[in-house]
């Protein structure tokens, strides 16, 4: 590519920041390998989704405004999460429906915001990834990524570029894992029943790893698999698989 | 029906522990979910057919009605009256009961045969009839099973005994009918038919709901699979339709569009076994039909939703697809929701019809996965409506103060990057201490419900922002 490098803002998400920084670095590596100049605004915190889904729009708006200001100078915003990506892309414009000036800024940013695998495939047309994972994997389609952003074929297309990876689809891969943010805290027992069905479907494939694109689902599924005594199935973010070890 | 929705969490816990129920739910779920999926594939296979376009058309029809509900109601009223029906309005459940009892008394009714009607559940009509000395007999097989099981409430809007197994029904029949226990469904259905036939012949009044009201003809449309609806609406000399004011569609053409969606979304059928369009009283020379027809149009909270952010909920055609596809409903069944309507549509309707403060858990009893939204035949944005109800709870200060305080505090910190960074670093170190050198935390007091069922993987050890700042420092690069 001869044209100037694309300036891409990486929003790592609060859960990655807290629990799994390596996913943030994997996303960074993938974007750099694809030729982007990656900017990571150092003041980023949370997109506001927990407040939004809890019905506290005042807090959600404050955090949305903060994120918009941090990222609106960049060409694109890339997020290694379907639910945070969906928050920015789908819900930010709704949040400011009664403030046209902010809604316009939110809409402009929303149009340039992409879930990581969607960005790599749909915007960059990536056909080569640095990872060297070997084994069978099964893919869990996270709800927001799938039903808000249409992320379904993109991660599978990227995994297909990895010769060592064999994809074995699980039954009902599009069904929710039962996380639902605060839902799993408020209704832990119902959430456990739902994630049990997900675990059954994952284990039935016999895959070495379940791969997914959202940290919430990841913590929920991994936590339940381990509690059930399964120590074998790895639970990996798609960015980790695609980027390989640092 | 008195709402028990405030006890959702406790009731859900009981349902999760009920092994028989769990087995029954699993079987019923796959039948409906796979049925719908196949019906959509089959529909789209026909040249030029597009199920998505059909959903758009249907939701437009429903919106058209809601935009001028008063006009369509008047149209319906005029047309129905012209065919000899009496059209009455009921503001709430108590008024439904009063009107139906009055009608029954006027015609000297001692027994009323009922076809399925969710509005009669909203009103508690059976209790009111019984109290007035009129015997109500449910004739929909599922509703009949529930009635003879000590008036158990339905757990699903189209499959009232969704929660029961064949074996449980066989035992109930043997006990109630004093017959040998049967093990085949056909045999049990025959037995019920024999019992119900007596009632069809002797009831002086039939009570039904209506899936749709057709304005241009003044008709009530019934969509059923068992044929009891036809008996109830044609054999007794008096027929009473009890239905919601939002059930209107302008034309027969619109009705046929919605009929392409309703059975497919509900059960995966291309068409239900019976579709009845009932217009007016028995005419001269007609062999059957009621001599007296009453249509009771019920508000019970509906009109107050028109023009509000919750208006899209009134598009609902009661197919049950949202609950069939809901991971929460699939896990706890319908009774946990505590009122007439379960699943996502119920979690929206129950607080709106019975009071937001009386159903605080329901809007939160959803992962917002939007499986309901994508299967809804009339494209009701159910997760969005649930979220709006959560907003209402916050606005009305109905959330626990601890939760409100925690959210505000977290929001305040998250708006201050330096402070947030410190808090995140502190949290990570705390969690790691709790993991005690292992890769997981088995119990965490802050989220007891979470760790009761699953481990929490320990954090890596340092936050992304810490590590990134360090890396940028090392590389001597400046980012922004």
UniProtKB/TrEMBL annotation, chain B:
Residues 306-337 form the 4Fe-4S ferredoxin-type domain. Pfam families: Fer4_8, LUD_dom, LutB_C. InterPro entries: 4Fe4S_Fe-S-bd (IPR017896), 4Fe4S_Fe_S_CS (IPR017900), FTHF_cligase-like_sf (IPR024185), Helical_ferredxn (IPR009051), LUD_dom (IPR003741), LutB/LldF (IPR004452), LutB_C (IPR024569), NagB/RpiA_transferase-like (IPR037171). Keywords: 4Fe-4S, Electron transport, Iron, Iron-sulfur, Metal-binding, Repeat, Transport. PANTHER family: LACTATE UTILIZATION PROTEIN B. This is Iron-sulfur cluster-binding protein. It comes from Aromatoleum buckelii. The lineage of its organism: Bacteria, Pseudomonadati, Pseudomonadota, Betaproteobacteria, Rhodocyclales.
């Amino acid at each position: 590519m001869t044209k100037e490098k694309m300036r891409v803002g990486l929003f790592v998400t609060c859960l990655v920041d807290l629990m799994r920084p390596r996913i943030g670095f994997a996303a960074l590596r993938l974007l750099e390998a694809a030729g982007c100049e990656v900017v990571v605004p150092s003041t980023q915190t949370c997109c506001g989704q927990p407040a939004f889904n809890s019905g506290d729009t005042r807090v959600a708006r404050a955090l949305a405004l903060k994120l918009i200001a941090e990222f609106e100078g960049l060409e694109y915003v890339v997020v290694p999460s379907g639910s945070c990506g969906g928050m920015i892309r789908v819900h930010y414009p709704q949040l400011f429906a009664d403030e046209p000036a902010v809604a316009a800024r939110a809409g402009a940013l929303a149009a340039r915001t992409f879930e990581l695998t969607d960005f790599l495939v749909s915007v960059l047309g990536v056909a080569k990834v640095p990872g060297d994972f070997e084994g069978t994997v099964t893919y869990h389609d996270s709800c927001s990524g799938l039903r808000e952003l249409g992320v379904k074929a993109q991660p599978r297309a990227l995994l297909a570029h990895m010769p060592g990876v064999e994809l074995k689809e699980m039954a009902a891969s599009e069904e929710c894992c039962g996380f639902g943010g605060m839902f799993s805290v408020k209704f832990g027992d119902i959430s456990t029943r739902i994630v049990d069905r997900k675990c059954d479907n994952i284990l039935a494939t016999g895959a070495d790893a379940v791969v997914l694109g959202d940290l919430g689902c990841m913590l929920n599924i991994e936590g339940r698999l381990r509690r059930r005594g399964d120590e074998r199935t790895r639970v990996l973010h798609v960015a980790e698989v695609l980027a390989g070890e640092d | 029906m008195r709402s028990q929705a405030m006890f959702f969490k406790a009731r859900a816990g009981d349902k999760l522990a009920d092994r028989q129920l769990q087995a029954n739910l699993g079987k019923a779920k796959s039948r409906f979910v796979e049925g719908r999926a196949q019906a959509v594939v089959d529909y789209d296979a026909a040249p030029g057919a597009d199920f998505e376009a059909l959903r758009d058309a249907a939701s437009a029809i429903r919106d058209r009605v809601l935009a001028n509900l008063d006009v369509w109601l008047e149209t319906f009223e005029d047309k129905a009256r012209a065919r000899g029906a009496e059209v009455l309005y009921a503001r709430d459940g108590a008024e439904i009961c009063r009107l139906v009892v009055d009608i029954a008394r006027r015609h000297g009714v001692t027994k009323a045969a009922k076809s399925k009607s969710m509005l009669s559940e909203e009103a508690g009509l059976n209790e009111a009839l019984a109290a007035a000395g009129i015997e109500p007999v449910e004739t929909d097989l599922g509703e009949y099973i529930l009635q003879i099981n000590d008036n158990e409430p339905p757990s699903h809007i189209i499959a009232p005994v969704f929660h029961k197994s064949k074996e449980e029904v066989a035992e109930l029949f043997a006990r109630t009918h004093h017959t040998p226990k049967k093990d085949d469904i056909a045999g049990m259905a025959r037995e019920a038919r024999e019992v119900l036939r007596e009632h069809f012949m002797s009831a002086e009044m039939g009570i039904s709901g209506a899936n749709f009201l057709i304005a241009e003809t003044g008709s009530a449309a019934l969509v059923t699979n068992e044929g009891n609806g036809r008996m109830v609406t044609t054999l007794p000399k008096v027929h009473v339709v009890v239905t919601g004011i939002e059930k209107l569609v302008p034309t027969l053409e619109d009705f046929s569009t919605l009929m392409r969606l309703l059975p497919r979304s509900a059960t995966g059928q291309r068409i239900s076994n019976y579709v009845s369009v009932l217009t007016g009283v028995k005419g001269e020379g007609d062999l059957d039909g009621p001599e007296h027809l009453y249509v009771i149009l019920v508000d019970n909270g509906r009109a107050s939703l028109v023009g509000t952010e919750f208006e899209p909920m009134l598009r609902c055609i009661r197919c049950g697809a949202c609950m069939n596809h809901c991971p929460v409903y699939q896990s706890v069944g319908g009774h946990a929701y505590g009122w007439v309507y379960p699943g996502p549509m119920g979690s929206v309707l129950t607080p709106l019809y019975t009071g937001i403060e009386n159903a605080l858990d329901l809007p939160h009893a959803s992962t917002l996965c939007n499986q309901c939204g994508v299967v809804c035949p009339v494209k009701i944005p159910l997760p969005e409506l649930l979220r709006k109800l959560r907003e209402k709870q916050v606005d009305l200060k109905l959330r626990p103060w601890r939760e409100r305080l925690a959210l505000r505090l977290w929001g305040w910190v998250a708006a201050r990057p330096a402070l947030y960074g410190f808090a995140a670093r502190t949290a990570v170190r705390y969690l790691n201490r709790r993991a005690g050198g292992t890769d997981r935390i088995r119990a965490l007091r802050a989220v007891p419900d979470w760790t009761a069922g699953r481990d929490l993987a320990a954090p890596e050890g340092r936050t992304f922002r810490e590590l990134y700042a360090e890396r940028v420092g090392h590389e001597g690069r400046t980012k922004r």
